[in-house]
Each structure stands twice: as structure tokens, then as C-alpha cells.
Amino acid sequence: MSTRVSAMSVLPPVRRDRVIAQLPQYFRKEAALHTKDDFNNKVKTACQEQRTGTVGRFKISKVIVVGDLAVGKTCLINRFCKDAFDKNYKATIGVDFEMERFEVLGVPFSLQLWDTAGQERFKCIASTYYRGAQVVIIVFDVNDVASLGHVRQWLEDALKENDPTGVQLFLVGTKKDLSSPAQYTQIEQDAIKLAQEITAEYWAVSSLTGENVKEFFFRVASLAFETNVLAELEKSGSRQIGNVIKINSNSNNLYTTSKKKQPNCCQ
Ligand SMILES: Nc1nc2c(ncn2[C@@H]2O[C@H](COP(=O)(O)OP(=O)(O)OP(=O)(O)O)[C@@H](O)[C@H]2O)c(=O)[nH]1
Ligand SMILES: [Mg+2]
Q1: pLDDT tier at 208 (50, 70, 90 boundaries)?
Q2: What is the mean pLDDT of residues 107-136?
Q3: How far, in Å, is the centroid of ligand 1 from the Cα of 102?
Q4: pLDDT, tens digit (0-9, with 9 covering 90-100), for 226-264
Q5: Of the residues 65, 68, 75, 175, which should be mutated to test ligand 1's pocket, given the most ligand atoms within 8 Å of the CB?
Q6: Which of 171, 182, 218, 244 has the largest CB neighbor count within 10 A?
Q7: Contact between 39 and 23 (Cβ < 8 Å)
Q8: What sections of the protein cross the membrane (predicted)?
């Protein structure tokens, strides 16, 4: 029996319910990152011809999930990744992360979801992991106006560590199951207005019922994938990119940022 283990054979196949063949639609047209109803043509062609360069088996996009304490960041990730919901609150201490593997237009694509702490005393540990994010998800509770009010601060903190032009932003209202339609409509207006101002795509979800959770993460994976492939095509220009395999530089420094940076806010 062969003992040789290649990177390919270590990876299990992508789950059938993580296969994305069509562009998932936005939640609200007024606050969408784009409103096209299909993937970019150049992206589709590149995928068909297997010219996606580093976007493929080895490409990992970093996603950070930030927002006030107890708004439901951990529950949102657990509903999607584990199809589980815990009604008891257990504060995230520092950070946790989950890997999710997708197949988009036939190409493997992974998201690394970083679940960060909202509690003030753990925030500085968490913020050392913000660097290198391609997607920032800012979460608020649709039943808590103050948590929506703090979104700009979370955005500022996240962008301090990242190139603002290279980040895709999502604004997610959670706990929709707890709000009455009238209350919800009121806060949605404010949330959409804010999303437009900060150029974020707006979603409302419930991790308890699962409403819109899968749709939301599929949209995140698809838009991140599309942006990555377009960037890859642009970078390559006329150069042949089909044979290049390299680990994304962002993912290289994921584990080293905390060592390099000495936070001085947690004493
Ligand atoms: N009804 C309802 N409760 C929710 C929902 N999402 C989260 N909760 C509850 O809200 C509380 C906080 O959820 P968490 O996901 O732990 O919050 P968090 O944002 O991760 O909090 P920190 O880790 O401290 O930043 C828990 O008691 C959850 O059960 C939801 O969609 N509906
Ligand atoms: Mg948490």
C-alpha cells in the first residue's frame, strides 16, 4: 500500500450542498454589492477553460465576522457550518475559525470564517486577526438599534488592518425571528441607508430558524469567488496562468499577525 499522501488526496470532496452553479441573488436590490443576475462572463469562461490560476484547490479567502457582543455572530456561523443552534450565550474569547469548502462554477473555493469576540475586553485580541480579510461581515441585532449604531466603529476597526479598496463588505441583521414585522421594517430602512453609505450588501437572517443563512453565505462565497477570479485574470494579463499554483499571500500571514503585533490594549 502506498504511504504517499498528496495535498489533493487529503482533502475530502466538496459537500454536495456546497456546490454553486448559479449566482445567488441579493437580499435587497437597494443595498446589493451588484445586481447582475449571472456571474461575470469572463469569470464563467475562465472557469470553463480552467484558467482560474491560484483560485482553485489552494485558494482560501479570509472572512472576518465582527459586531457587538451577543448580536449572534457565533450562532450565524454555527447555523451555516454545523446546522446547529445554541440558545445559551457563550461569549467568544478572542477568535474561532471555521473552514468552509465550496465548489463555484466547477472550481473548488474555500472560505476561512473568523468568528471574533464582540466583548470589549476580548476585542484587542480579536482585532489582531483582522488583517488580510477579503470579506468583512458586520453583524447587528435587528432588535437592538444600538448595535446598528456601532457598525461604523466596527467598520473603522476592521479597515485599519486592511486595504479598504480590496474588501467586500456585508451588513447582516440577525435574530429576525424575534422582531415583529412593523419593528423590522423600521430598522431595515435605517440598515439599508447605512449599507448604502458604507457600500455594504445588506442581509437579514435568523440563526434560530435558519432563514436566509445559507443564501447569505452562498452569496458571500460567490461574490468573493468572482472578485478573486477577476483579479487573477487582470493580474495575469496576457501571461498564461493555468499552471501556476501558489498559496495566497494573505493566507500566509494569517497565523503570524498575532506574533508580530504586540497589542497594548489588553492589560
Ligand atoms: N432568537 C434568536 N436568538 C439568537 C439568534 N442568534 C443568536 N441568538 C442568541 O443570542 C445570544 C448571543 O449569540 P452569540 O452568537 O453567542 O453572539 P456573539 O455575537 O457571538 O457574541 P460574542 O461572542 O460575545 O461577541 C445567544 O443566546 C443566542 O442563542 C437568532 O437568530 N434568534
Ligand atoms: Mg461569539
Answers
A1: very high
A2: 93
A3: 25
A4: 999 998 888 877 455 444 444 444 444 444 334 444 444
A5: 75
A6: 171
A7: yes
A8: none
- In the structure grid, which three cell numbers stand for residue 219, read together? 452569496
- 3-class SS at 76? helix
Prediction pTM value: 0.87
CA–CA distance, 28 with 35 (Å, rounded to integer): 9
Distance set, CA 199 to CA 80, 171, 211, 239 (Å): 24, 9, 24, 33
Tell how far the Cα of 218 is from the centroid of ligand 1, in angstroms: 21
Helices 213-236, 73-82: crossing angle, 10 deg rounding:
80
Retrieve residue 118's grid coordinates. 464582540
Nearest CA to ligand 1 atom 8: 72
Q: Is the CB of 150 under 6 A from ligand 1?
A: no
Residues 6+ apart with CB under 8 A from 155: 136, 138, 169, 198
